């Protein structure tokens, strides 16, 4: 099924069945723990509403977004889900969270005080979670505040829906930081013995059942990306992206390609210009300049290199060694069976998360294997 078409051609195809298979695989690994789903950044670029509806249909009930606005949009798509807002409580917005059934993940004494005051004025406890910083030094209560938080909760009669933290180095399973954080988290839970706990992201889900606790929060693995460095990625690929060739030309050895004349041809070369640039999220860091290896794409199943600098709307590739006839309008695989999310990430010296959340630009998003009853609106 296709949601939109482009006159230019090409686009991003998202396999909803692959997302379901990945989520179910993670749910199996998590054992008796509940399995949530992280849908922040518009479902890592795949469309939070559609993915949320799809996962709800197969049993997911707990969802995590970054911002309250993401939560409001997701609430429209899955009215009965439990939705947590990882950014916490925006000052003076408690009523807005409550109106949309969003649970802020409270991360500071000021947020906790504001939420408890809101509950007092409402005359009832409105659900929220607590996030403790076990060493990441991002958002979260300091560990030394645990006793103070406990006293505030006891005085108010409020019990949080969940106690959370977040690993800094779970993608490196042998890293001492992960064991240290988990130890701190275990100690923290002594202050909240009857409250569900959650610390595991994708990598932690796949690393050890010791990190699963009551609920796990997979993200990147659900979308087919590599969660653990140095290991084969067992997840099903979710996304394909193809763009058309605009023009093909023959150039001679010694000629230069692209802005800054930064790449000089070492042989007579057949060049294809593809309709893709950094405005579409194809990183300028994928440029092939000087002696630097740039990005790789595939034409007719053959992997070929980027030539010269990636520009705003167009990028040159070397199709000299592609067998058979290649013509303008033919597709170039940016992501797919030949080029993975992590292939692009490695070439750009970044991570799959950034690739997924950036590659949108001007190309339509299409869905395949849409479950019966799941709306694409």
From TrEMBL:
It comes from the Bacteria. Its EC number is 5.1.1.1. SUPFAM superfamilies: Alanine racemase C-terminal domain-like, PLP-binding barrel. Pfam families: Ala_racemase_C, Ala_racemase_N. Its cofactor is pyridoxal 5'-phosphate. Keywords: Isomerase, Pyridoxal phosphate. It catalyses: L-alanine = D-alanine. The modification N6-(pyridoxal phosphate)lysine is found at residue 40. The keyword Signal does not apply. Substrate binds at residues 138, 312. InterPro entries: Ala_racemase, Ala_racemase/Decarboxylase_C, Ala_racemase_C, Ala_racemase_N, PLP-binding_barrel. The active site is at residues 40, 259. One of its GO terms (molecular function) is alanine racemase activity. Residues 238-368 form the Alanine racemase C-terminal domain. Pathway: Amino-acid biosynthesis; D-alanine biosynthesis; D-alanine from L-alanine: step 1/1. Belongs to the alanine racemase family. This is Alanine racemase. It comes from Pelagibacterium nitratireducens.
